[in-house]
Amino acid sequence: MKLARFLLIFIYGFSYSQVSISDIKRAGIKSEQDLINMGFTQSEINSLKKNSDQSETLQKDSTEKNTETPLENPKNERKIILESKKEKLKKEAVYGQSIFNSGAVLIQKNSDRIKAKDNYIIGSGDIISITIWGFSEFNNNFTVDDLGNIRPKLVGRINLKGQSFGNAKKIIKSKFSKVYDLRSSNMAIELSYSKVISVNVMGEVFSPGTYSVPSINSAFNILSLAKGPNQRGSVRNISVIRNGETIHNLDIYQYMNSPKKSSFAHLMDGDFIIVPTLGKVVSIGGEVVRGGDYELKEGETLQDLIQFAGGFNAKANMKQISIIRNTFNGKEIQSFSRAEAENVQLKKGDEVIISKVSDIITNQVSVKGEVVGPGVFDFKQGESLMELINRARGLTTEAYINTAHIYRLNNNLEREILQINLSDSKALKNTTVNNLDEVYIFSKKSFLDTTHVIVNGLVRNPGQIVFKEKMTLNDILTLVGGAQINADLSRLEIERIDFNASEKDTFNYVKILTKNILTDADFKIQPFDIINIRSLPEFKFQESIEVKGEVKYPGIYSLSGSQVRTADIIKRAGGLTKLAYGEKAYIQRAADSLGLILLDLDLVSKKETSKFNYILRPGDTIVIPRVNDIVSISGATGVKFLNNDKINAPFTKNKFTGYYLRKYAGGYDKKADKKNVYVITLNGQVKHTKFYGLRKPKVEKGDKIIVNYKAEKEKKEKKEKINWNSQIENLTVKLTGIATLWILISSSIN
After folding, report:
1. Virtual CA dihedral for 151, 153, 157, 159, nearest 10 degrees?
2. Quick check: pTM over 0.90?
3. H or E element at residue 705
4. pLDDT tens across 338-362, in order?
5. Cα dist. 476→452, 454, 632, 657 in Å?
6. Chain-centroid distance, C-alpha 595
7. Is 406 helix (H, G, I), strand (E, B) or coil?
8. What are phi and psi of 23, to 5 degrees?
9. Does one domain contain both 229 and 186?
10. Residue at which a domain ends, from 327, 356, 385
């Protein structure tokens, strides 16, 4: 019988999990030849040996001997096989399937610090640790033998076979109390090693097969080794079968929802865990804590389903629970209240939808606009409009009291407007507020034009100002930060719109008013006035010029007006010094990019009406050079200067350039352009030769004589000689061609 059972397990589970050699030995198979005689191929046997969890080797010709395992090094626990042919893990089909492959359930190993429950059944292979301390001392481990006995020295044999761990502790304590003084001592009895059992997991699991585990594990733990139920596997009706009878039914929902109330049968060697296909599956969605698909047992109601889904959430409408059900004619929907739904029996494939409560507040009134505390308020039956406004803490100072609106739903659920005069206290008291009314209090600003005043010109903050009643001209100046220092406050110009303009005025709506702030400070401003504040006539801030050179007091001078002339500034500068060369003075003017302006101060000093007595401009610089008795000569002269630049010679009165070139510069260089001799004066004036060089410029003090070189002529390229023979030959060919063309044309015409 044992062999037949093993073969059934082996054939079913070989392709899904590993089977240990020890399992084969317990089935009575002692050699590879026995497996060959049973029909297994050599490749299947080799695969079994390769995947075995122990290093044992089957003997081909001899029978293996049974050897006892020493207590101090127990090896009855076999390695738990986790690797197998696995189906690809998919999303759970119903709630609860994924708990096993998510790592939430772990297997208990003997290497862990195990703690047996009182209902644990003692059996062969268990190791019990007994410790006594205090007046008496004792410490030892005892292995339960095949007959269920342990044999402590002095105490003798203690039979524990089939006893629960709770009863076993009482029996052991009773036996030891006859030998040791336990009244003055403490005693601890623990399960230090749990016997290893083989449990078969079959049916709709991801990895069916036989699993060897410490017997301290429950069916729930062992299911995690098989990766739990697959998408087809039940989570509510898992059976534990022993000797052909169901000893326990495992309900995963009970464990997940009430773990303290869950109980698990103690497993024994050879037990089967069978996972059948799913039973009745229904779905629930909408306003529940955990929507999804759930498996229900027979007799469970809609109320049970809602409990599995975590109950209603805060937005659930408990008066509207809908069930969509499959029928022969298609889908049908049924609706229930929570009370009606408690005992509703669900069918396979039902879809339950928990509706959401409406976001609309059904008992409200609102007050908006110009009240101190606008908002939404609860509706009170019979409340007057005055009472509602008081609940909104009254009107603001900006409230428009002549008209308020109540937007009220009529029988067609459309808003209609009720107009109320807030200044009529009787109407306020007699107007009753209805549910869902919306009261709107208007602002005075809604009935007023937004008006303004514009200020342009010399004020600190020009721009647009909001108009206020009774605003004066002085108020305007205050709001813009006052006038600037150069503003002419005696002549403020106001552009005003006159809405009373008539045809007589040719409909000229703009009137110009002139006001003096000193006398018209209280002048009333009107909306849309434009106030222009301009500068004092011909006002200018200080503007200056600079005097450099030979005056007594050179420096910067302010212009006292717009008609200040050169002579005026020279007088303020103390006049010219003795070394001043007034005839060669000049003005540097940046304005209009004029640059240098010739100036003869000797003439200006003699006659103020002189054309050189210019009107000065801001930024001008008057330069008066010092008298210089030196004349410099440079350019194409006969003498090569020591410094290769120029030669300086003493000034001689009434002499021309020729004199200086002959006397001091060795005449002209052979490359000199005698027609282009220039003289540059101290004030930048340029004089040059005239009448093809016959008339030379007169030289004055400090002048510079410059003799230019002749421009180099471009060399003409040597022309090639004409080859007349070639030219005549080309001409003859062309004439012959023309004659031939003429003959052809004449022939065609004729």
Report:
1. -50
2. no
3. strand 704-709
4. 888 778 889 999 999 999 988 888 8
5. 11, 9, 70, 74
6. 61
7. strand
8. -60, -40
9. no
10. 356
Based on DSSP, count helices (H) and strands (E) in the chain, helices before strands: 16, 35
Category of 463 on φ-ψ map: left (φ > 0), alpha (ψ -120 to 50) or beta: left
Residue with tokens 């450099």: 548
Assign 3-class secondary structure to 470-494.
Answer: CCEHHHHHHHCCCECCCECCCCEEE
pLDDT digits 0-9 by tens, 596-652:
888 888 888 888 888 988 888 898 999 999 888 888 888 888 777 555 578 888 888
- Mean per-residue pLDDT for 252-259? 84
Which one of 278, 297, 331 terminates a domain? 278
* Contact of 304 with 296, CB cutoff 8 Å: yes
Is 204 found in the same domain as 187?
A: no
Residue 718 in tokens: 């040597």
CA atoms within 13 A on the CB side of 198: 19
Domain residues for the domain of 339 are 280-356
Would you say residue 179 lies in a domain?
A: yes
Under a CB-based contact definition with an 8 Å cutoff, are residues 150 and 160 in contact? yes
Residue type, 742: W
CA dist., res. 299 & res. 636, Å (int) = 131
What single-letter amino acid sits at 313? Answer: N
Does 82 reside within a domain? no
604 backbone dihedrals φ, ψ, rounded to 5°: -65, -40
Say if CB 557 and CB 569 are below 8 A apart. Answer: yes
Residue 433: is its pLDDT beyond 90?
yes
CB half-sphere exposure, 666, CA atoms < 13 A: 13
Q: Are strands 364-369 and 438-443 parallel, antiparallel or unpaired?
A: parallel
Asked, for residue 19, whether it belongs to a domain, the answer is yes
- Are 107 and 86 spatial neighbours (Cβ–Cβ below 8 Å)? no
The residue type found at 199 is V
| Amino acid at the residue 68 | E
Q: Do 352 and 282 form a contact (C-beta atoms < 8 A)?
A: yes
Between CA 286 and CA 291 the distance in angstroms is: 7
Residues near 549 by Cβ (< 8 Å), separated by ≥ 6? 580, 585, 622, 623, 624, 625, 626
Question: Which residues neighbour 286 within 8 Å (Cβ) at sequence distance 6 or greater?
Answer: 316, 352, 353, 354, 355, 356
Express each pLDDT in 518-537 by its tens digit. Answer: 899 999 999 999 999 999 98
Q: Strands across the sheet with 351-356, in order?
A: 292-296, 280-286, 351-356, 316-327, 330-336
- Residue pair 246/273 in contact (Cβ under 8 Å)? The answer is no
68: confidence class by pLDDT, cuts 50, 70, 90: very low
- Amino acid making up residue 333: I
CATH code: domain of residue 232? 3.10.560.10
- Residue 194 DSSP SS3: coil
Residue 143 and residue 246 share a domain:
no
User: Does 177 share its domain with 150?
Assistant: yes
**Of 522, 528, 564, whose CA–CA distance to 545 is shortest?**
564
Q: pLDDT per residue over 356-404, tens digit each? A: 988 888 899 999 999 999 999 999 999 999 999 999 999 999 999 999 9
Residue 748 falls within a domain, yes or no?
A: no
Cβ count near 696 (within 10 Å) = 22
Residue of 196, 120, 194, 197 whose CA lies nearest to 164: 120
Q: Which residues contact 715 (CB under 8 A, 6 or more apart)?
A: none
Q: Are residues 200 and 271 in the same domain?
A: yes
CATH of the domain at 176: 3.30.1950.10
Between CA 285 and CA 250 the distance in angstroms is 26
Query: CA distances (Å), 693 to each of 219, 657, 706, 726, in order?
Result: 132, 11, 14, 51
C-alpha distance from residue 339 to each of 290, 302, 336, 344 (Å): 21, 11, 8, 10
Shared domain check, 245 and 98:
yes
Amino acid, single-letter form, for residue 584: K
Do 378 and 438 share a domain, yes or no?
A: yes
Element (H, E) at 153: none
Give CA–CA dist 387/379, Å, rounded: 12
Same domain for 99 and 225, yes or no, is: yes
Q: How far apart are CA 468 and CA 453, in angstroms?
A: 9
Q: How many domains does the chain have?
A: 8
